[in-house]
Amino acid sequence: MAKPVVAIVGRPNVGKSTLFNRVAGKRISIVEDYPGVTRDRIYTEAEWLNNVFTLIDTGGIEPESKETILAQMRRQAEIAIETADVIIFLVDGREGLTGTDREVASMLRKAKKPVILTINKVDTLEHSPYYYDFFELGMNEPIEISSSSALNIGDLLDAVVAHFPDDKGNKEEDEMIKVAIIGKPNVGKSSIINYILGEDRVIVSDIAGTTRDAIDTPFTDGEDKYLLIDTAGVRRKSKIKENIERYSVIRSFTAVDRADVCLLVIDATEGVTEQDKKIAGYSHENGKGMVIVINKWDIIQKETNTMKEFTKTVRNELAYLDYAPILFVSALSGQRMEKILDTVKFVANQNALRIPTGGLNEIIGEAVLLNQPPSDKGKRLKIFYATQAAVKPPTFILFVNDKELMHFSYLRYIENQIRQSYGFEGTPIRFILREREKGGK
């Protein structure tokens, strides 16, 4: 199931970033950093009372602008309304109610989403002198906090998670291969979706109205059931053109959360962009299967080794996705389009692949004999035993004598040996290191 999305909205200088960092600092489960993954401070994963959610800091979304504060706030509110399950509306308890607060509150009341009015910079147990003024906004009773001193942050998060859905998913959806079409706007995602949902598919229904305004389309292909998560055509009817890519990034994050396999669509005429890196990095970090689709290949001027050179460039730009298959297609002409769904099915199976413990340990044993583990100050790394702990993504536990002796390069070597034997094409692999004394339990 997708992680719920929580957005912090508020005018400048009310403490959005401080609250964002405070909640992010409470994270229990920290995603490991992988080399080459482009990060952006507009989002983070957070956890409270065993509820994991994606937190968005809208204060970091807008570039510098000469437009009015009210126009900037309107944009932030639009992002929150479009993407969030719960909205934290942050106001300033020292300055009191402003006209901008009233305008934003008016927009949020129409959002039909839970909004938690939060008064920041209240550093004592006494009410803010403006506390009762904020009732004018017509929202529920406000929560008073201090982001800087962490006062009442727990009460705020209790209120946030109370709005999360109780259901843990449904069996029918769990049996489907969930496919998210991700990438920049105007790269041909809609055309690819239309091809996948061609006349030879059985379209069950269109389900509109998820909290992110995406369109979910279940369909079957032979015996296989799929759920297509389409964010390609989702656009706010807004004149604010320059923010469409930011909207697209956040929509893609939520689509990735729900997917088994992501189709990253890249425009062959543009190559890999910074936005592609953000979305691809998020998918990689979250252990999703990945297929890279280079669209509009028909309009590229071809010379000897053009495809080979383009592949090399993509691999360099997205080095952490070296496991992902690359398809060169044209949605316009239909070139190689028939390979997409077959590749999706293959990658979904690889992402859910479980291998025998005996075979796994045999591979690692041979790898150690071929290439001695690293050592430091006379002490050498020993790998006693390995087992697969999970799938989606495939996750392996390595029992070792000292975790500090495991260099990244040697772990990558072990990964490559496993891939050579079992494939795992299109899926990241995770490793968990546990220390165990030799002969211990």
UniProtKB/TrEMBL annotation:
Function: GTPase that plays an essential role in the late steps of ribosome biogenesis.
Claim: Repeat is one of the keywords in the record: yes
Keywords, comma-separated and alphabetical: GTP-binding, Nucleotide-binding, Repeat, Ribosome biogenesis
Gene3D superfamilies documented for this protein: 3.30.300.20, P-loop containing nucleotide triphosphate hydrolases (3.40.50.300)
Family listed: Belongs to the TRAFAC class TrmE-Era-EngA-EngB-Septin-like GTPase superfamily. EngA (Der) GTPase family.
Stored PANTHER family: GTPASE DER (PTHR43834)
NCBIfam families: GTPase_EngA, small_GTP
Source organism phylogeny: Bacteria, Bacillati, Bacillota, Clostridia, Peptostreptococcales
UniProt subunit comment: Associates with the 50S ribosomal subunit.
Name this protein carries in UniProt: GTPase Der
Organism: Alkaliphilus pronyensis
Residue numbers binding GTP 1: 10-17, 57-61, 120-123
Residues reported in the UniProt entry to bind GTP 2: 183-190, 230-234, 295-298
Keyword Lyase: no
Family matches, as PROSITE patterns: G_ENGA
Biological process according to GO: ribosome biogenesis
Residues of the EngA-type G domain: 4-168, 177-352
InterPro entries: G_ENGA (IPR031166), GTP-bd (IPR006073), GTPase_Der (IPR016484), KH_dom-like (IPR032859), KH_dom-like_a/b (IPR015946), P-loop_NTPase (IPR027417), Small_GTP-bd (IPR005225)
Molecular functions (GO terms): GTP binding; ribosome binding
SUPFAM superfamilies cross-referenced by the UniProt entry: P-loop containing nucleoside triphosphate hydrolases
